[in-house]
Amino acid sequence: KKIDKKPPEADQNGMVQKEETVEISIPAGVENGMQLKVSGKGNAAPGNGINGDLLVVISVEEHPDLVRDSSNNLHYDKYISFSEAVLGTSTEIPTVSGKVKIKLESGTQSGKTLRLKGKGVPSVEGYRTGDLLVHINVWTPQDLTKEEKQFFEKRFDAENFIPSPKKSDKSFFDKVKE
Fold first, then answer.
1. Alpha-carbon distance 27 to 142, whole Å?
2. Does position 48 have pLDDT exceeding 60, yes or no?
3. Whole-model pTM?
């Protein structure tokens, strides 16, 4: 094939290099490093050949509070005060679709994990959605005033302040096994 008229910016094959913006649909649940293929949107082939494919490599931005695991579950560390653990509280938890309010019962123990079903990340295949696991951490105060310190000293040997786990309470190792 002979090229009679070629633009001044064309190469020896008569091809002009240009950029094109391509709109793609990214499915829910994609993971970091996944590739999406857009057929026919890659480099043009010389001599009226078939255009190549555009490969898009996904880079997922991390959420400031939620951590994703390999099973599409999200994890969130919720820190509560000693008073909130003793008395119970209502609190807001961030999710991928907005905030939800949860209620923590009085006597909530540090290390308790709450499961919010279906509040995780959907799978790419679309057959299930992960859960949001809220890990409760009771924050122990480090700098007490004199009055606060006296309050706890008076209750140092009080029956309600002595640890007495029930058989139904799981140890750290039982939780790791699960």
1. 46
2. yes
3. 0.74
